[in-house]
Design goal:
The structure holds two protein chains of two kinds.
Chain A: H1 4-23, H2 25-51, E1 60-65, E2 67-71, E3 75-79, E4 81-88, E5 92-100, E6 107-110, E7 126-130, E8 136-148, E9 151-160, E10 167-169, E11 179-183, E12 188-192
Parallel strand pairs in A: 5-10, 6-9
Antiparallel strand pairs in A: 1-12, 2-3, 4-5, 7-8, 8-9, 11-12
Chain B: H1 3-9, H2 12-41, E1 69-74, E2 77-78, E3 83-89, E4 98-102, E5 105-106, E6 112-115, E7 119-123, E8 136-140, E9 143-146, E10 152-153, E11 161-165, E12 168-172, E13 180-185, E14 190-194, E15 199-200, E16 207-213, E17 219-220, E18 223-224, H3 226-229
Parallel strand pairs in B: 2-10, 11-18
Antiparallel strand pairs in B: 1-3, 3-7, 4-5, 4-8, 6-7, 8-9, 11-12, 12-15, 13-14, 13-16, 16-17
Classes of the chains: A alpha+beta, B alpha+beta.
């Protein structure tokens, strides 16, 4: 425990200490550079936002989070999968997962979906695609009705043989009409008008 | 007078002002650098619409040395506008001196999608009309070969359907009571049955062609569900 005298001596020293600290060149230097940093930080934060390209006017028709898939050999890789409602004559609009594929000429669905979507493959125009090893795959062309936000959209698709493969959203009738925006910061995919 | 003394003599008000001026001076190069970085990341590549890609005729190539040989026409039916594949060998690389016929109708160059030594891919002409059996006939450098199994051309109005469910084949919506269904297999064998029969199919053979005939031997167009036959 400090005696009263000791306390008084310590208090008496405080003004001197304060004066010393406030007039010390180290304190002032820290203060000076601290202020510069405080002034500059907002600039660093704001400038990129000012210069960031913002699309002028757009409606976000559909937004979805990245879906991550863990691959045995490659680890975690995100897949650009979006759910788009497609029209079934008996059930109305039902959500269907599509893999966004800018390398695909046309969107595709497995042929098992043709009948529920109201198509008879035999009556659809038949075409071919070359598969691995240059083998041929028959595909059947049709148009399906989809919904993006409140917009209904008819997109050309092909029904293909492979039942286990994902439905693919290709370029034709889609990439030329909408903007597909991948936001790696927020890990989202947006379909914009 | 040392820097230390100068700093000690400066008041906090002056220091604040000096710091503000220094910050503004520093902000200029920092802003320029940051904006440059943003410019880099906003680089764009505009997609260019190419000229309309029309179905150009294929370039001509070598003629085969031997006689062309057809091993399969697949599928065995189609409607105008559908793509058909002809497998075989000695087709050459789209030789100039060639003719391809489906029944009596010549397949023009524009309907030939691919022509390699082993595969010919063609589209049935959209104006194709038929009332008889149609056979694929191929002539290259005056050497002719024909696929001996009839190819059926149907239309979107065709109602007769041949169904394959598991190992049974049946005919639906046949307009008259009598008729014959002919099934050709890959080993050269054939099954001929009445259209009303439920036909049991052998498990060890593959169907390469089906055709329907009425009592007078005329062909009856029909369609199949491609999924039933794997095409």
């Amino acid at each position: 425990m400090m005696s009263d005298k000791q306390i008084k001596q310590w208090v008496d020293h405080v003004p001197n200490f304060k004066t010393y600290i406030l007039h010390n060149y180290i304190t002032k230097t820290i203060y000076f550079f601290g202020l510069i940093i405080i002034f500059i930080i907002p600039t660093i934060l704001i400038i990129p936002k000012i210069f960031k390209q913002q699309p002028e006017n757009f409606d976000i028709l559909l937004e979805t989070h990245y879906k991550k898939v863990v691959w045995e050999d490659y680890g975690e890789v995100f897949e650009p999968i979006i759910e788009i409602p497609i029209y079934y004559p008996e059930k109305g609009f039902q959500k269907e997962e599509f893999l966004i594929d800018s390398g695909a000429l046309v969107s595709s669905l497995s042929r098992e979906k043709a009948q529920p979507l109201g198509f008879s493959l035999a009556m659809l125009p038949r075409t071919t695609f070359k598969s691995f090893g240059n083998s041929y795959i028959f595909a059947y062309r049709a148009n399906i009705l989809t919904k993006l936000g409140n917009e209904e959209l008819s997109i050309p698709i092909v029904f293909t043989e492979a039942a286990e493969t994902k439905s693919i959203l290709g370029r034709m009738g889609f990439f030329d009409k909408y903007s597909i925006y991948f936001d790696s910061t927020d890990q989202i995919i947006q379909i914009r008008n | 007078m040392s820097i230390k003394t100068i700093i000690e003599r400066l008041s906090f008000k002056k220091l604040t002002g000096l710091a503000l001026i220094s910050a503004i001076v520093l902000m200029i190069p920092i802003s320029v650098e940051l904006s440059k970085q943003q410019t880099k990341t906003t680089g764009k590549a505009y997609f260019e619409k190419s000229d309309i890609t029309s179905s150009k005729p294929l370039e001509y190539g070598n003629s085969p040395i031997g006689k062309p040989n057809i091993s399969l026409v697949w599928p065995f039916l189609g409607k105008p506008g559908d793509v058909v594949l002809i497998y075989g060998n000695n087709f050459g690389n789209n030789p100039k001196n060639k003719t391809l016929y489906l029944g009596l109708q010549f397949i023009p160059e524009n309907n030939i999608i691919a022509w390699t030594p082993e595969v010919i891919e063609f589209q049935i002409p959209k104006d194709f009309q038929t009332n008889t059996f149609d056979f694929i006939k191929l002539t290259i450098k005056e050497q002719t070969t024909e696929w001996k199994h009839p190819f059926t051309v149907y239309s979107t109005n065709t109602i007769v359907q041949v169904k394959k469910q598991e190992e049974f084949l049946s005919v639906a919506n046949y307009p008259i009571t009598d008729g014959v269904v002919n099934i050709d297999f890959d080993d050269g064998s054939q099954i001929t049955a009445k259209v009303n029969d439920n036909i049991s199919l052998p498990t060890d053979k593959s169907i390469i062609s089906i055709y329907l005939t009425d009592d007078d031997g005329r062909n009856i167009p029909f369609y199949v569900d491609p999924g039933d036959f794997g095409f």
